[in-house]
Amino acid sequence: MIVKLLSGDQPRSVLLTLLLLVTLVCLAGAPFLFDGVRALDTAARICIFIVLAASYDLLLGYGGIVSFAHTMFFGLGAYGVALASSHMGRGFDALLVGSVSGTVAAIILALLIGLFSLRVRAIFFAMITLAVASALAVLVSQFSGLTGGEDGLTYKIPRALTSANRMGEFMGTQISGKILNYYLVFTAALILFLLLLRIVNSPFGRVLQAIRENDFRAEAIGYRVIWYRTMATCLSAAVAALAGSLFAIWLRYVGPDTTLSFEIMLDILLMVVIGGMGTMYGAVIGATLFILAQTYLQNLMGSASEATSALPLVPDLLNPDRWLMWLGVLFILSVYFFPTGIVGRLRERRAS
Amino acid sequence: MSEPILSLRGLHTDIAQYHILQGVDLEVPRGQVTMLLGRNGVGKTTTLKSIMGQWSAKSGQILYDGQDITRLPVSARARAGIGFVPEDMGIFRDLTVEENMVLGCTTGPLDPARKDWLLSAFPALGTFWHSEAGNLSGGQKQMLSIARAMVEERKLYLIDEPTKGLAPAIVSTMAQALRELKAQGASILLVEQNFSVARALGDSAAVMDDGRVIWTGEMAELAANKDLQERLMGLSMETH
């Protein structure tokens, strides 16, 4: 049953299985295991970024396609929900219409980019995606009447999904609509991740891997490389847009900085590379570690700085303001020690 | 005599600024093994790659099964029934032997009878069926490359130096598999430097020099005539 759910793609490492199980249990029980709004918000972000990173892994790790437009698709899904909720008023119908239209828009844009640009060499394709994504970010900023410009959009979601909806107590925790909202995000993220796992382990996924390794050989066997690459771009864009919709439902706000910025694009790239490209599980590990570091590294450094206050220089180095520098150091070290990503390394250990 | 499965007419191919094929004329009869011979660098591999479409022909015509495929995309040529085994063992290293073989099936699932035949021809592939192809030895990779091309029945096989750099035991396995493919009535255009293999398998031969076919005839005639060999290829088959 579990093997079937995972599409036969098992973690193939005891340590990796344990890490994935711990992540799954923590995310599934987050509202009851951890106190506070911040913890729940972190868990929801982890769920969403797992899907976003996994959809990018389909493109980069399995298809060998370097794209810088992934946040654009993420943003389209998020703005779809935001615009629908702003114009149709709060309601599940607005969420559904917004998610579907954002996803359809992402698929159409991905199809156009794919058909027009995937024939060129990889580096030029990457440049084209960067240009299109930048253009869309500028458009969102310029059409402030529609999109709220740099300020973004704040809107209402169904009351059933907000803190105002109180549904009693369970295991000492007050059950509110916010927790319901979290489980909507968690369940959707789980389904989308399992769907991606199914896609990469299907014959389509195998052809993608073959194209990544040697596109001429795949073509010479009879596979239309351009069609497969375009399909991968569309699928990946659709899942990214759905992740964006979940993000919009969770945050009740969208803005260029939270969904469209190049910084998020780099974050996704790092999550996939650190976790392990072409493994899907790498997206789970990479996104979880990255979001945890982003959220808690500053606190951790604050405590470390206080604990070492008697020493010279060390408290300054561990000053919470320097958290970005340490995050950078952590990334350099992880890429150095785990060139095939954490998942790749764990699987190698098993193989040796 | 029936129409040949493949005819090249005045084929010219450039690679960058180099004019490699300078008017290749060649016919590959149906159900026969045609050997493409010649010294290194005369354009044998480029001829195969031009037929497959990896290099676009600058001028000339490629007629395959009665159809002009000169401007068809590579995948369409493959789907029309041309199987290509390149010199550089174009296997997919990250995929398992099984996945490589399944990828070779573009028209349907892997046929069990065909699989059994290939695994009896290349037993090593059965042993490493679930291993990543990148972990195979050089000879096993070459077996996989050939087996993947044979996994579905093709109308024409283009095979580039299948025994190059292989140990003698593996060369005989490879030659036996090609003999079995020939016995099934396959049409094959084979580039081969190992003359004992060429002599054993070839029905007809075409010798190339300087980007052109300079001699065509029966393989047996070429194998028996040392003077002809020396004149066409600068060496005698007996010495190799």
TrEMBL record, chain A:
Pfam families: BPD_transp_2
Primary localization: membrane
Membrane topology: Multi-pass membrane protein
Transmembrane portions of the chain: 14-34, 95-116, 122-140, 180-200, 226-254, 266-293, 323-344
Intracellular or extracellular location(s): Cell membrane
InterPro entries for the chain: ABC_transp_permease, LivM-like
GO MF: branched-chain amino acid transmembrane transporter activity
Electron transport as UniProt keyword: no
Keyword Cell membrane (UniProt): yes
Domain of life from the UniProt record: Bacteria
Recorded GO CC terms: plasma membrane
Keywords assigned by UniProt, alphabetized: Cell membrane, Membrane, Transmembrane, Transmembrane helix
Name of the featured protein: Branched-chain amino acid ABC transporter permease
Organism: Celeribacter baekdonensis B30
TrEMBL record, chain B:
Domain named ABC transporter: residues: 6-235
GO biological process, one term: L-amino acid transport
SMART domains hit by this protein: AAA (SM00382)
A Pfam family that the UniProt record links to this protein: ABC_tran
GO molecular function, one term: ATP hydrolysis activity
Record-linked InterPro entries: AAA+_ATPase, ABC_transporter-like_ATP-bd, ABC_transporter-like_CS, BCAA_Transport_ATP-bd_LivF, P-loop_NTPase
Keywords: Amino-acid transport, ATP-binding, Nucleotide-binding, Transport
Superkingdom as given in the UniProt entry: Bacteria
Family designation: Belongs to the ABC transporter superfamily.
Protein name (record): Branched-chain amino acid ABC transporter ATP-binding protein
Organism: Celeribacter baekdonensis B30
